[in-house]
Amino acid sequence: MKTREERQALRASMPRTPLSAHHMENARLLPDRGELLYRIPNGGIGVEVGAAFGEYTAEILEKNRPAQLYLIDPWSMDRYSSGLDAIHTNFAAEIAAGRLHLMQGTSLEKLAEFEDDFLDWAYIDTDHSFDLTWQELLLCDKKVKRTGRIAGHDFCTGNTVKPIVYGVVEAVTKFCKDYGWQFEFLTVESHAHFSYCLKRL
């Protein structure tokens, strides 16, 4: 675990990207990320990057009703190693029907396997570091259709219980400015682990 000084240095090393009004002017607040699933493209092709035990997967299938849903996760960390078995058990029917596809491996390896402009949306929920989130966003910029959405979890400064510094806010704001995306939705859960949803300008 990093010391307070190390966390402060990490935070200071991340870019501070000021956004213009047009990056935020069409954004709406939603109560939670479950509600977000009704707002991103329904009935299409989506990917959940960082599926863990499949809790959010169940909500995606119920509320978003994608025609095809891809799950990316290495399922290799001790904390999540039993997640793959749980997903096989809980979603056996969707897997057998060819609606749910499991892609075991790192986010960058597996996102790169999609054809460009293939996805209607992507939802990112991995390690929340600036570097990895930035690389994931760059890949999603290519893999998501022009009319698609990029969303993700933990749009906040960190986990105060651990404590761990996150770089999601910095990566997402820099991505919006550098690559021409804007905020469409932000969620406002009471636990403050917010989700974001982006669309192209």
Automatic annotation (TrEMBL):
Keyword annotations from UniProtKB, A to Z: Methyltransferase, Transferase
Key word Calcium present: no
InterPro entries, per database record: SAM-dependent_MTases_sf
GO molecular function: methyltransferase activity
GO BP, sorted A to Z: methylation
Coiled-coil positions: none
The keyword Cell cycle belongs to this UniProt entry's keyword annotation: no
Gene3D superfamilies assigned to the protein according to its UniProt record, in alphabetical order: Vaccinia Virus protein VP39
Protein name as annotated: Class I SAM-dependent methyltransferase
Protein's organism: Rhizobium anhuiense
